Amino acid sequence: MAIHTFGAIDVGSYELNLKIFEISRGKGIREVDDLVRRVDLGTDTYTHGKISSNHVREVTQILQEFHRIMDTYRVEAYQAYGTSAIREMTNAEIVLSQWEQKSGIHIDVLSNSEQRFLDYKSVAMRGEKFNKSIQDTCAIVDIGGSSIQISLFEKDKLAATQNMKLGVLRIREMLSHIDVRTGEYERLISDLVNSQMEVFRKLYLHNDRIHNIIIVDDYISALMQARHMDIIHHADFDSFAAESGSVSVTQLARKAGITEDAAGLLHISAVVMGCIADSLGAELIYAPGVTLADGIAYEYAEKKKIILPEHDFEEDIIACAKNISRRYMGSEERSRSIEDIALKIFDATKKAHGMGMRERFLLRMASILHDCGKYISMVNLATCSYDIIMSTEIIGLSHIEREIVANVVKFNHSDFVYYEEQEGTSDLTREAYLTIARLTAILRLSNGIDRTHQQKFSDLHVRTKDDKLLISVPSGIDVTLEKGMFRNRADFFEEVMGIRPVIRQGAVSRK
C-alpha cells in the first residue's frame, strides 16, 4: 500500500500554516505535523494595499523554514495557497516572485470562491458528522480575516452562498479608528453584523430557520477544541461568547492555547458568531476544528484518485446554479432541455473539441444560467446575463471558470468577439478563449435546436459521421422554425469544430 507524504501551506491573513499529511488508499488522510507561524499580513493589506518590507522578510524566513521541514519529511508533493491578504495586494506578483526565488516555494492565489470551497471540503472530511449536519437545514459559516462566507444547505444540497466583508481583521481595523468604551465594542460589532444579516435573511431565508451551523474559523474552534468539545447548543454558546469578553486577554489566550493578539480576534469572532446564530435561529453549532490546509490535502488526494469522495461536490455547484437561475425567474424545464441537448453534442464531438470533464461541467453551468439576464432585460439579455454571473458568488468555480461560463452565456445571445479582437481588454488566456469558443458553439446549436422553447426534442440522437454532425429527430415534429434559424449557428459550429451540423428528420437511428 503506497503512502504519499504531502505538504499543505496556507498563507493566510493572520498566520502561515504548514501541515504534513500521510495519504493512502487504506488509511485515508492522516495529519503528521502542524506548524503555525503568526504574521499579521491582513492589517497591512487592508490598510495600505501592500505588505510591509519587514513582513515580506519575515514570511520569506518562514517559507524557508517550511521548505526545510518538508525536506525532512521527504514530502513528495506540496501545494501552497495565498488567501485574501495576498489577493488584495496591489503588488502581489512582485512579492510572490520574491518569496519563490528565496524559498523555493511557489504560491498560488485562491479566489474567494475557491478558498471557501476548499474550506467546505475540509469540513466534508469529517464524514458522518458533516453528512448528518447537512441532512437538515444547515449553514456553513466561514469566518476569515477579510470576510465571512455563509453557505446554506437544504436536504444535503448547497442552496446558496454569500460573502460579506466582515472578517475579524477587517472589523478590528475598522473599529481601531473609533474611540469607544469596552462595553460599546460588542454593540458596534453587533450593529455591523446585524445590518448585513437582515439583508441576507430577506434574500435567502424569509421566515425560515436554520437548525445547524458549522463554523470554520481559527479562533472559536481553537477554544472549543481546547475544551475537548466540537458541538455546542446555541443557548450555551451565548454564555461561551460572553466569557470571551469577560476575562483578560492573557487568560483567554491561555485557555484557547493561542497568542494574546489572537485572543482579541477570538472575542470579535465570538460576537460575530453569536449575531449570526441569533439571526439564523440556529439550535446547534458544530466546530470541526479544520483549516484550509485540510481542504488542500483533500483536494490533492481527490485529484490523484487516492481517495474517493463521499460527497458529490460538483452537484453542490450545480444546485447553486439552479438556485441562481430560479432567483432570476429562469425556466427549469427549458434549461433542462438545453442541457440535455448540449451534453449529447459535447459527448458526440469529443474527438473534434478535445475537451474534458471539467469543460463538460462548465457547459452544464452555462446551460442552466443561459437566460438569467431576461429578468433584467430581454433586449440586453447578453450583457445582463454576463453581469449577473460575474457578480454572483458561485462557490467552487475559479474566477477564470466563472468568466468562461459568463462569456459562453453572453456569446450565446450576441456576436462572438474573437481573441484577436480583444486588443488588451481581456486577461483571459488563449486556451480559455478556445474553451469559450467551443462551448459557445455547442450552446448556440443546442439553443437553436430548441428555439421554440417547447422542448420537442427529448428523443433527439446525435452522432458524427465523416465531417458531419448528424442530429436526428423523430418524424411528426414540426421543425420548420428550427431549420430556418439553424444556418448561422451551424456556420459558427463548423468554423470552431470543423464539423458541419445537419438536422435529419425521420426514424431516429441508434447506430
Question: What do these coordinates show?
Answer:
It is a single chain. The protein has 511 residues and is an alpha/beta fold. Helices cover 53% and strands 17% of the residues. It is built from 22 helices and 14 strands. It has helices at 41-48, 53-72, 84-87, 92-103, 112-124, 128-135, 168-175, 182-205, 220-226, 234-246, 249-256, 260-280, 292-303, 313-327, 332-348, 350-353, 357-368, 381-391, 399-413, 430-449, 480-484, 486-497, and strands spanning 4-11, 15-24, 28-38, 77-82, 107-109, 138-143, 148-154, 157-164, 212-216, 231-233, 284-286, 461-465, 468-473, 500-505.
Helices and strands, with pairings:
Blueprint: E1 4-11, E2 15-24, E3 28-38, H1 41-48, H2 53-72, E4 77-82, H3 84-87, H4 92-103, E5 107-109, H5 112-124, H6 128-135, E6 138-143, E7 148-154, E8 157-164, H7 168-175, H8 182-205, E9 212-216, H9 220-226, E10 231-233, H10 234-246, H11 249-256, H12 260-280, E11 284-286, H13 292-303, H14 313-327, H15 332-348, H16 350-353, H17 357-368, H18 381-391, H19 399-413, H20 430-449, E12 461-465, E13 468-473, H21 480-484, H22 486-497, E14 500-505
Parallel strand pairs: 1-4, 4-5, 6-9, 9-11, 13-14
Antiparallel strand pairs: 1-2, 2-3, 6-7, 7-8, 10-11, 12-13
Helix pairs in contact: 2-4, 5-13, 7-12, 8-12, 10-12, 11-12, 14-17, 15-17, 15-20, 17-19, 17-20, 18-19, 19-20, 20-22
